[in-house]
Specification:
Strand content: over 45%
Shape: elongated
Distance between the termini: 30 Å
Structural class: mainly beta
Number of strands: 10
Largest sheet: 10 strands, antiparallel
CATH architecture: Beta Barrel
Number of helices: 2
Oligomer: single chain
Number of domains: 1
Order of helices and strands: EEEHEEEEHEEE
């Protein structure tokens, strides 16, 4: 069940979008740490305690800060999400960034962007995995800290219905742990609108 409140103000004649939302899922979900008897499941190896309902909240802020309304110019954004710590392996995330539309003359629909983000791995899950490793002798890696990502991209719009977006990402502490090697990722996203 989603719930969202939004506001679309105009700041110096430039559009913005501000949203605050929450969700509640009525289905059952596995507890990350406790078993059916409310004991640490990593130690007992028993089935997970079933949690009735999962929930979270988010904040999304976006504001064009210069240029022409809904046209050429810079837009900044901030997104924050908090999830249920009982059932979500990734319990919160924060991203901030900027996009500039129409950077080059004659390329009004193209845009360039830069964003950084931090995603937190739930320590409850990491504790259960560590206990399970001790019980079974396995070496499963589960982080309990932040994964940091930086991305830069360019969106090329050759015609209004086609967008090609190459991007470069750098990921620091993948999975929220220093046990995983940092990574560069080169990607391409394509969008075709009918």
């Amino acid at each position: 069940m989603p719930l969202e409140a939004g506001w679309q103000p105009s700041w110096h004649g430039l559009p913005g979008s501000y949203k605050l939302g929450a969700w509640y899922n009525t289905s059952e979900g596995d507890d990350l740490y406790f078993d059916v008897n409310h004991a640490p499941r990593g130690i007992t190896g028993l089935d997970a305690l079933q949690r009735n309902g999962q929930y979270g909240a988010y904040l999304s802020l976006q504001q064009q800060v210069n240029g022409i309304a809904d046209g050429r110019g810079a837009t900044v954004f901030l997104n924050f999400t908090q999830a249920d710590r009982n059932t979500a392996r990734l319990d919160h995330q924060l991203t901030v960034g900027m996009q500039y539309k129409g950077l080059f003359e004659g390329r009004g629909q193209d845009s360039v962007g830069l964003a950084v983000g931090a995603t937190h791995s739930n320590g409850r899950y990491a504790d259960a995995v560590a206990q399970g490793n001790a019980r079974t002798g396995q070496a499963v890696v589960a982080g309990r800290s932040y994964e940091y990502v930086g991305e830069v991209y360019y969106s090329w719009v050759p015609i209004p219905s086609i967008t090609v977006r190459p991007n470069l990402q750098y990921i620091l502490h993948p999975g929220g742990t220093t046990r995983n090697s940092n990574a560069f990722v080169l990607g391409v996203k394509s969008i075709l609108v009918f």
